[in-house]
Write a structure and sequence with these properties.
- The protein is mainly alpha-helical and 109 residues long.
- It has 3 helices and no strands.
Length: 109
């Protein structure tokens, strides 16, 4: 039995071929997520008026807990959509508004 190693010879990559692996930055997605959270927080005020403050008096921790979730959703959608800012804005607004709607309906019973 031989005591040696297999040697593989690979072709060197040329310097002219580049890959199109561009990273997407997470800051625009985070900003979109935070702005979507602020806009979604305004939806109950637009629907129910100033009576919403009485609801928020006891339920503010639930809505505050959705803020980091909204930021992470914005970052994830920005990365998944390839950094397309307009699509990120629309998708994040829809997802965050749906999360707020589900939470608000759950709290209202």
């Amino acid at each position: 039995m031989r005591n040696s190693q297999n040697i593989t010879i690979s072709r060197p990559e040329s310097l002219t071929t580049t890959t199109a692996d561009e990273t997407t930055w997470s800051l625009p997605g985070a900003v979109v997520g935070f702005v979507a959270w602020l806009l979604a927080l305004a939806i109950p005020f637009m629907v129910y008026g100033s009576n919403t403050l009485f609801v928020f008096l006891y339920t503010w921790p639930f809505f505050l807990a959705l803020m980091p979730v909204s930021v992470v959703v914005g970052i994830a959608l920005h990365s998944l959509l390839g950094g397309k800012f307009l699509y990120t804005c629309i998708a994040t607004l829809l997802v965050v508004a749906a999360m707020f709607g589900v939470l608000f309906l759950w709290l209202m019973g």
